Amino acid sequence: MSDTSGTVKKDAVEPTAPAPADDPTAATAAATVVDPRLLVRDEGFKGYITEFRRRVKGGELGSLPVIVGLIVIGIIFQAQNSRFLSADNLSNISYYLSATGMLSIGLVFVLLLGEIDLSVGSVSGLASTLFAVFVVNHGMNGWLALFLTIVTGVGIGALHGFFFARIGVPAFVVTLAGFLGWNGLMLWLLGSSGTINIPDEGPVHLLGQSSFFMDQSIAGAYILAALGTASLLFGSLTDQRRRKAAGVPFRPTSEILLRVVLLAVAAFVTAAVLNSSSGVSNSLVIFLASLVIVDFVLRRTPYGRKVFAVGGGIEAARRAGINVSMIRITVFAISGGFAAVGGMFFAGQTQSATLNAGGGNTLMLAIAAAVIGGTSLFGGRGTVWSALLGMLVIQSIQTGLDLLNMNTSIQYMITGGVLLGAVVIDSVSRKSQKAAGRG
Amino acid sequence: MVHVSATPVLALRGVSKRFGAVQALTDVELEVHAGEVVALVGDNGAGKSTLVKTIAGVHPIDEGVIEWEGNPVSINKPHDAQGLGVATVYQDLALCDNLDVVGNLYLGRELLRRGIIDEVTMEKNSRELLSTLSIRIPSVRIPIASLSGGQRQVVAIARALIGDPKVVILDEPTAALGVEQTAQVLDLVERLRERNLGVILISHNMADVKAVADTVNVLRLGKNNGSFPVKDTSQETIIAAITGATDNAVTRRAVRSTEAAK
Ligand SMILES: Nc1ncnc2c1ncn2[C@@H]1O[C@H](COP(=O)(O)OP(=O)(O)OP(=O)(O)O)[C@@H](O)[C@H]1O
Ligand SMILES: [Mg+2]
């Protein structure tokens, strides 16, 4: 979650300020390079507040709407039903969010290109059915079936990408066709039986509700929390040391500590809550691990940089020698792959492949999650963590409405409203970013 | 000033390019030597940008030969041109608005450290490059979208220098700039020449051309219409070649001799 490019760092040393001892070039560089009109962040806590205000005004809302949203949701549902914030219910939310969350991860890639993939719901449904057919009808080994299912998802996505990138059909239309077509294939495979029950073993067991990290050992959750905190601390300090050595602006230690403490509090509180229920589900662990890996790929590898570049300016990307078609095809393949993985998560939840798998509002929720989490529909801006943040919001609403025994009709209307709200925030913040010169 | 080495670093021989019904370039010749600034001038639609794009590999040529240091080469994609050492700054700058200055400078050739993008070294080099070119940017970590037009222009030129090119092509680099920024870009062009790079400078501004170029090549309706050493050619002569008031060497001489008589 440490997007270094998003924060104003000590770059902005005032031209007259004395150079920090560790940066001999800063004085001359600052005198020539820094524009005197540049706003400088004050040191210390007051600095954070003014910086924060400036960003909000400039339309860089970041995760602010999500956090406000979560607090509001918590208050409203807790007031209606005191079980909402109970450990068991929160544990439920953490388990159920990972399936749709997987679809969201793939969608983040597609949204970063400024495109849309409407087929992920159908592909996830098809994946669970394919898996069931492989395992139940053909007696295939579960892990092999899992592999083949994911490969199929990747292939389907690549096919969409091919029609979009090479033939030039708008992604919206290609994936709309996929939305219908793959759902049709799933219905045809399920045939008259309508449901295939999958034995509770192999990957389906791993993704089931009764499968927990380190077999529900109390230590498991804390080990995960400690691991996350330690890697942020270690990563930030290494980065700071390298930056100091190279004489470029670095994050001050106070800021690193603040971030690490915030993450530690969040991680250990979550661990404690989940432990007081039944532990950390393996689905959640796999989801979080996927987030960490994908975040790394997007921010730190040349491939990720290319995805952002294509999303930010196709012409610029092409002239920089980036193979735009290849990026588009692979991005849709990744989306298809994650849709298939999400389908396996759904299969794990119900231990079956059913007619309505991946149907209903699955697609809407997956898109909504990515957008609510802060990934822009207009391409080029976003992080994969939005899949987690957005799903926290969505799953909380769903679980809350279930607790209140709300009708599906009401649920659909509320979900629709939330999606619209997220898109409005995205569009408005894009406008004010343009106004603030940060389009 | 013009130190003309025997073989030009880049030469175009009889290059033609068609777009459907438009014959954008016909039998165009062009030579660029190391340490030489060649101005390419011509009216709107004369084919200057197209010529540049054929060298840069955006539009492969239909006919003719491109020679690099005396040897014929084929340039079919931007990567080929980059590989040879041609860096191009296009008229429409084509920067990625969502990436920061460092990201744009290194786009497509990120420095890697154990397979991971090496942000620290890239940032360090970017700051050094910008400060040796005396480029003023608030921070190398802000998105390109928040820079002014002139700042984007200098970033685009700096971007061209990252890969240590031998030939730099600038397509109307001063068109949208204010007085001071224009002077800065022209200074930058002179610094490129001092580094012994070949520079192709496209411009509609005769003052800029006279200020920094060594040779002027005129394009008219996709064809060569004269090549002049800047030092001993008058502005009128160049303008006449651009507008087509003179289409042959005889009238061109006449203009020059009446000038001499003045
Ligand atoms: N991609 C293209 N497809 C079709 N025609 C093109 C294309 N690019 C350029 N042309 C045509 O080629 C001719 C030369 O255009 P070019 O952009 O090279 O002119 P220019 O000299 O750069 O003009 P300006 O001074 O306005 O930039 C024009 O007639 C133009 O319409
Ligand atoms: Mg042009």
What does this molecule look like?
The complex is a heterodimer of chains A (439) and B (262). Chain A has a domain at 68-211 and 281-425: Orthogonal Bundle (ABC transporter involved in vitamin B12 uptake, BtuC), CATH 1.10.3470. In chain A, 70% of the residues lie in helices and 1% in strands. Chain A is built from 17 helices and 2 strands. A two-stranded antiparallel ribbon of chain A has the order 1-2. In chain A, helix 6 packs antiparallel against helix 7 and helix 9 (218-246) runs antiparallel to helix 10 (253-276). Chain B is an alpha/beta fold and 262 residues long. Chain B folds into 2 domains: 1-85 and 165-262, P-loop containing nucleotide triphosphate hydrolases (Rossmann fold, 3-Layer(aba) Sandwich), CATH 3.40.50.300; 95-164, no CATH class. A 6-stranded mixed β-sheet of chain B has the order 6-9-10-3-11-12, sandwiched between helices. Chain B has a 4-stranded antiparallel β-sheet with strand order 2-1-4-5, covered by helices on one side. The mean pLDDT of chain B is 85. Classes of the chains: A mainly alpha (439), B alpha/beta (262). The structure holds adenosine-5'-triphosphate and magnesium ion. Magnesium ion binds at residues 48-49, 91, 171 of chain B.
Element layout with pairings:
The complex is a heterodimer of chains A (439) and B (262).
Chain A (H helix, E strand, L loop, with lengths): L25 H8 L10 H14 L6 H17 L6 H26 L7 H18 L4 H26 L3 H20 L4 E3 L4 H5 L11 H29 L6 H24 L5 H19 L1 H11 L1 H6 L4 H27 L1 E3 L7 H11 L12 H19 L4 H28 L4
Antiparallel strand pairs in A: 1-2
Helix pairs in contact in A: 3-16, 4-10, 4-11, 4-14, 4-15, 4-16, 5-6, 5-7, 5-14, 6-7, 6-14, 9-10, 11-12, 12-14, 15-16, 15-17
Chain B lengths: L9 E10 L2 E11 L4 E5 L6 H9 L6 E6 L2 E3 L4 H7 L1 E4 L11 H5 L6 E2 L2 E2 L1 H14 L16 H13 L5 E5 L7 H16 L3 E5 L3 H7 L2 E6 L2 E7 L5 H9 L5 H13 L1
Parallel strand pairs in B: 3-10, 3-11, 6-9, 9-10
Antiparallel strand pairs in B: 1-2, 1-4, 4-5, 7-8, 11-12
The complex binds adenosine-5'-triphosphate and magnesium ion.
